[in-house]
Structures are given as C-alpha cells and as structure tokens.
User: Fold these one by one.
Assistant:
Number 1:
Amino acid sequence: MSSHAPTENLTRRSFRRAPGDERRQDLIRATLDILAERGLHAATVREIAVRAGVTNGLIRHYFETKDHMIHEAYRSTMDEMTVLAREAGNSAAQHPRERLRRFVAANFSPQVLDLRKLTLWASFISMIHIDPEMAAIHREAYLEFRSEVEQLVADVFAEAGMASGEAECRSAAIKINAVIDGLWLEGAMAPGLFGEGDLIAMGMESVEAILGLSLSDDAGGDE
C-alpha cells in the first residue's frame, strides 16, 4: 500500500460497541496496522479512527494525545515479543538448559521473526532519542527482557554446579540479549539468506560460547 494513500481508500471497520479494554486494544491494533503499512507520519488520530471504525472523540476518551497512543502501541509491541519468549522459557521443560534453549529459539519463531515487527521496530526506534517517554518504555522493556535472561542463566549455572554471582549473570544476559537482537535483525531484514533453523543454531552456539557450557540434551544434569 502506498504511504500516501488517501484516507477514503482505507477500509472502515463496522462500528460496534465493545468493553473498555477491548476497545482500547482495538485502537492499539489499528495504530500498529497503520504504522506497519504506511509509517509513523500516517498514524494520525483521523486515520486511526477510520481504520478502527470509531470517532475521533472516542479515541480521545482512551488516549490523551496521539503521542500517548503511539507510546502504548510501542509498549504493546515490546510486551508481545517478551511474552512469547517468556512463555517458551517458562515451559514444562524440567531442566534449565532446555528452558534457555526454548527461550532463545522463541526469539526466532515466525511470530517474532517477521517483516511487520521489523517495520514497527524501525518506526519506534527512531523516536527513542527524541521522545523521553519512548526512551523510558524502551528501557523498561529491555530491563524486563534482560531480567528473564538473567534468571535463566542463573538457573543454568546452578544446575551445572558453576559458581556465579549477580554481576556474572547480568554480564552473560547482556551478551545473550545482544546476540538475539543482532540475529533477529539480520533474519528479519533478509530472511532468504538463512536456511531453516540456521538462526536458532547460531544463537545456541553463541549462547554456549558466552556461558562456557553446552546446552545440548546429552550435557550433564539430565539424570
């Protein structure tokens, strides 16, 4: 879709009444749709109202300003990506190494590794250095994600009988986060350059190098 498509060419959703939380999420989804399709400049209150099938006034009821709506759209995007990885890491797997493997792999799943999320990320990231609220949301999301990794790393070290302090776990988590970010960015930008499972394999290899231990099934701790 052209980034300069007129408002009247957008499909207007049928108006329907919805509970407050559901309506708010509808507006966030409409904001994300426009951002992904047409960019940040196109995400005006009027365009979002058309896409969501509501009035401008109803949007003002849920969001004080357009910036507030953009902030919440960014928060929603980051939360979704973190939750997908967290749920994988908190799976029914018995051993910490398996939970960490699943956490890393989840970051390269089709739900995360797609062009839409890359497009949204690029739109949002351009605002971080000029919008203090966006910077605060970014910092909060980063620390939440890093905390998930730190706990998984601590559990893996404990299972392996490796002495580790808070600083060591944090350092490993920062490095692992950087590996995931870098591979995700490469994979989302040029998916055709990688074979199925390549990014996961490279991610696992890098994490093992950072931790100094194997995460494979035949490593110690499965008795």
Note: The chain has nine helices and no strands.
Number 2:
Amino acid sequence: MTVGKISVACWVFFVIMSIAFLPLGAGVVLALHALPAATRFVVAFLVVGALWWGPFAYAMYLSLAVMRNGDRRLLKRGIHGTAEVLSAKRTRTVIQEGEFAWEAPRVWKYRLRVTIPGRAPYETDCSICVPDLSEGTVVDVAVAPHNHRRVTIDVGQDAKDGPRVPRPVPGHAPAVPAGTEARTPGWRPAGQTASDAQRIGLLTQLGQLHSQGILTDSEFAAQKAQLLGE
C-alpha cells in the first residue's frame, strides 16, 4: 500500500469519526458512569485519542515528514535499491509548513519501476515534493521491508539540511527535471553516446553538483571516471 493510499485512508477514517463522534460519544459517556475511573480513562483515550485523532496525527505526519521531505526513517531502516521513473504527474497538492502559500512545495506523483535485492522489478507510486524528474531517470530509493509498495526517493533526507535533490546513481546520467534538458549543457539520455562537447558539458555539470555538496567525493570521482572512459 502506497503512502498516498495510506494518507487517504487516514483522512477518510478521521472524517467518519468526526461525523459519528456526537452520537457515539454520547452513548459512550452514558455507559461510562457504571465503570471505574481507570477504565473510563482508558476507554476515553481509545475512542478520542486512538480512533479519532490518531488517524489525523498520522495523516499529518505522512504529509509533513514523508511527502514533503522524504521518509527519513524509511531511508535509514528500509531496503535500498534503485528505481526508474516511468512517469511524472504534477498534483494540485502543496505541503505548507510555515511558508507563504505560493512558496509551499508541490507534491509530485511518480510511477516507478523499482529494483531491490531478492525481488523481481515491480511498479509502484511515490508521492514526494521533488521537482518533476524526467522519464527514464534512475534514482536511489528505499523500500519498506514489510510493504514493498511504500517507497521513498533518496534526496539526502538522512542528513540535516540535506540538498533535497535526488542523488546520482553510478552508471546513470544525473537526475534533471523534465523540460530542463535544453538548458543543461551537454545533457543526454542514459545510454546515448556523448560527443566531446557533450562530455565537457557533463563534466561541468558534475563539477557544479560536487561543489554544491550534492555529490560526494567518491560519487564525483565515479561519475567523472565513467565519462572519461567512454
């Protein structure tokens, strides 16, 4: 089950509980008078806290911590692999957290073909506030151990103040937003032979990513060696 579906289920359950709370709550309160104080507290906590406000709190967590910034917990504890972007959809959803409404990041929904150890490639969706990645881009991902449909793209969310940009995968072209190929010197799709001019442009782009801290020293060296060895 994807994060998007889990979030929708939480909101639906919260709305149902909000509508049903008055008749349900009235009946529960009348029945609680015959119960000991400790039991009344436990029942009240379960009804109000767990069943009603619990789904709301979890839905907010999925929005602010998972969709907005990328699932940091999943990146640390999940199964690591790669995924190819099959399609990108710009949704109408924005995740606002202190900014003005027009500055809030927008959620993009990606269709991914995921590859992880011990399992055949499969397709799933990932909703995250990362600008539209072009089709065919390969990114690092982490997958939930017991729910392989739940995936997060590695955008450096495991580090404080991470770049929030997909990290390049060795052997593949750097991830660039769809529609920016013409503005990126030397950009080319993965697998296409590069001319000398294109190779120089790609080296320039890699150098910029390295100077910005998006590429580590080892990642930069690996990408550079691959380009020079073509």
Note: The first strand starts at residue 79 and ends at 94.
Number 3:
Amino acid sequence: MRRALILLVLTMSVAVAAEEVWRWVDADGVTHYSDRPVPGAELIDLKVQTYTPAPRPETGTTSQPAQQEEETRYRSLEIWKPAQDEAIVNTVGAVSVRLRVDPTLQSNHSIFVYLNGKRLDDQPVDALDYQLTDVPRGTHTLTALVADAEGKTLIQAPPIVFHVVQTSVANPPVGPALRPPPRPQPRGDTSTQLPSGEIQPSYGTLDRQRRGIPTAPAPQRSTGPRS
C-alpha cells in the first residue's frame, strides 16, 4: 500500500512536469508509471489545470473606472454672455448666449439651456454658443447644466438675469415731447386776420354787439396801392 502511494505521488509529479504518463504492469503484477513509453505501456491522459494570478496594479496607479470618473468631473460651467443684469436694447427679441465649461465637454455628455425655468429643446446639446429668438420684453432668468447619458446633472451654471428693452417703433413717432409748439400770440391787438382780408372783431366788440350796444364798424384793410 505504501509503495502504491509513493508511485501515485511520483505519477503526479511526472504528470505535472511532462504532461504525459505511461502505465504498464510487469510479470509480477506490479503497476509501473513513467514519462517514457515502454513496450506494452498505455498512455494515460491527465489534464493538468494551471492557475495564473491576475497582475497586481502598481503602487500609485488608478483603476480605469476611477480615471474615467476623474476625467468627466467638471470644475466650472458659467454663462458669460449676456452678462449679469445686462440690458439688451432693440434686437427684436434676439439674444446671443455663450457658455464656458472646464474641462471640455465630453462626447457622451449634453448641455441644456433653461430660459425662465423652461428647457430650450430646440437648441443643440453639444454647443457653447446659442442664438435665442423672439424673447419678449422684460426681465428674464437664464441658466444651463451638463448632464451625462443617463440624464444625471453633473454641473449647473449659476443663473443670470438680463433685460430685453425695445424702444417705440411708431411711424411717425408720437409722444408728449413731439407735440407741435403753440402759436405765438400777437402783442397789443388780439384780433386775427381772416382769409377774406377783414379784421376779426375783438372779444369786447362782440360782447357789446351781443348786448345791443352800438359799435363803430370794423375798419377794412386796404388791398390797393398806397398813395
């Protein structure tokens, strides 16, 4: 029995080293194992499984998921046009918007712009310059954010406030400052020349006529040549 165990250990050692084991039985009925074939020996197919451990990361290196997370971490996102509290005058509702993001926007991320709390879905999601149209008069709030492919917000820009101002486009312009000046009043004589050439009677003459008091006839303006 002990001999058989020794032979088995030797067999396993030979199998590990040579990957081929031959077995035969001699005339005395003893079983033998060898890594070399002999007459009458049979080949034993031993499948030896080996294990190779995964290499350990070197000290100071970072795993790939951590590197990707570090690369997609944005340090800043800001709206630099329009400026805070800027008044945009006479653009018929057109407003230019420009953003800054650091680091550069990743290919699988998107930028969304919000005007007065409503997302502008008609704007490109990979651009930093936008052109808003038909923005009505008044005060508006603008902000933006960067989101990943799953829609998670990665960074949001501080909101800014701007004003759209549009002057009057009436033609001709109207207003109190554009009223015609009053006509100058004549000095001494309050009468006004009529188109027929007669002198318009004064208020006192008309009042005496209304009360029946006789008045002198109004003088006629001469239109002939002077002598």
Note: The first helix runs from residue 2 to 18.
